[in-house]
Design a protein that fits this description.
Layout lengths: L1 E5 L1 H18 L12 H7 L1 H24 L3 E11 L6 E9 L12 E6 L4 H14 L2 E4 L9 E10 L2 E2 H4 L4 H4 E8 L21 E7 L13 E15 L5 H5 L6 H34 L7 H21 L4 H6 L1 H29 L5 H15 L3 H10 L3 H19 L2 E6 L6
Parallel strand pairs: 4-11
Antiparallel strand pairs: 1-3, 2-3, 5-10, 6-7, 6-8, 6-10, 9-10
């Protein structure tokens, strides 16, 4: 809370200045524009003059108070008038949030490890298998279901004899569906569900008992036992395409050998990016862990909302059901709050380093990001720029570019040790 008082002399002086300004523009009956008596102008426009004087005094004295107290404010202040008249000091209270105060630790020479690895033939074969799986065909078969198949089923589910929606209203998809595809793999859908369909054929009916895990996505069902009445509609077999030149051409390669080379190159680039990102994360984490400071709650709340909005939108685009998102609402908000605090803290720390090192972001730093957004959304760069301006997000892009340059600076000046890559876990 900042209390500001403007002396009576300053109030009177500002009244005179503002009133004369109104006089120059005023056009009252019987007088030429700008020639009206000042006392008549003051009476005629009293309310407007009061408002202008108050605004002028508030803005000027508020900025001066920040300079006097050496305060760096974030966001807009909430101003509460205490007293205001022509014949006494003007007083007001400003509720403000200030930028966190902290000392920068030594940010040059931060230790980090870069794991040295290589792309193996097994990695390439695994990637090729993933490409094959993208072109999987599902053929209906007249036989018993086995692991690796897909079961098309109708089902209804209950817990303690009542429909699941009576317990978890948002979990409509868990209560019943028709023509639902279940992968015949362990852990698919609900753990234990697919296992109990092994050996069934089209037309068979089975009662499937499941134990909802303690960390199940729907909180109301965690640790409960479910009973499903299931009818197998179809049994489908996964058929993968042959790994040959024709397959390679479907991905734009001249032949299978060229596809192998392209896949290996992509994996090597991906590995390099992963290694570099790991180094950057280590450096940033080490730096931020050295700094403890309070953060402006208004900014943290705004950032939390932005993260939640983006998370929900991303999941909706991926086809995540609304009931799943609703069930995870508390977890999403909690996770977003933690991420928001880290992001806000990082912004202040990086901003301070940028100021100290003279690091700035200009238009050339922002253009690549605009190009990326345009490509991802399949629109022109001009359209992206218009949308950013419309939503007041241009500054956000410059901030992102500035942070990128600061982290680049930290990496360049870090003490990086190259170590063998850890053996992958089974």
């Amino acid at each position: 809370m900042l209390r500001v008082e403007v002396p009576t002399e300053k109030v009177k002086e500002t009244y005179e200045t503002v009133t004369k300004s109104f006089q120059r523009k005023a056009s009252l009956p019987g007088f030429r524009p700008g020639k009206s008596p000042i006392n008549m102008v003051a009476k005629r426009f009293a309310r407007d003059i009061d408002e202008d004087v108050k605004n002028k005094l508030t803005n000027e004295s508020y900025q001066q108070a920040l300079r006097d107290h050496k305060l760096i404010v974030v966001g807009n202040p909430e101003v509460e008038e205490v007293s205001f008249s022509r014949e006494e000091p003007y007083q007001f209270l400003a509720t403000i949030e200030v930028a966190p105060q902290f000392d920068l630790p030594d940010y040059k020479g931060i230790p980090a490890q870069r794991q040295i690895g290589r792309v193996t033939d097994a990695d390439v074969n695994k990637a090729l298998m993933m490409l094959r799986e993208r072109q999987t065909k599902f053929e209906t078969v007249d036989r018993e279901l086995k692991e690796g198949d897909v079961a098309v089923v109708n089902y209804t589910g209950t817990v303690d004899g009542v429909p699941i929606t009576d317990i978890a209203p948002a979990a409509r998809g868990l209560t019943g569906q028709k023509n639902f595809w279940v992968n015949m793999d362990k852990g698919s859908f609900i753990p234990g569900f697919a296992d109990q369909l092994t050996g069934a054929k089209a037309g068979d009916k089975r009662t499937v008992n499941v134990d909802f895990p303690d960390d199940f996505v729907t909180p109301q069902l965690q640790g409960k036992k479910g009973v499903y009445e299931v009818e197998v509609v179809e049994a489908k077999e996964k058929v993968l395409p042959e790994l040959n030149d024709e397959f390679a051409k479907s991905y734009g390669a001249e032949n299978l050998e060229a596809l192998n080379v392209g896949v290996r190159t992509d994996l090597e680039n991906e590995l390099k990016m992963k290694q570099e990102n790991a180094v950057r994360e280590q450096i940033v984490r080490t730096l931020l862990d050295k700094i403890q400071t309070d953060l402006p709650e208004t900014i943290v709340l705004r950032e939390t909302r932005a993260i939640v909005y983006n998370l929900v939108n991303d999941n909706q685009r991926r086809g995540t059901p609304g009931e799943v998102l609703e069930a995870q609402k508390d977890q999403i908000v909690a996770s977003a709050s933690v991420a928001a605090r880290e992001r806000v803290k990082a912004n202040f720390v990086f901003g301070k380093i940028a100021e100290k090192e003279g690091i700035k972001a200009d238009q050339s730093d922002v253009i690549p990001r605009v190009q990326q957004i345009a490509m991802e959304n399949q629109v022109s760069m001009d359209q992206v720029i218009k949308d950013l301006q419309k939503n007041n997000r241009v500054d956000e892009l410059f901030q992102q570019a500035l942070i990128q340059k600061v982290v680049d600076f930290l990496v360049k000046n870090a003490n990086i040790e190259e170590v063998p890559a850890a053996e992958p876990k089974e």
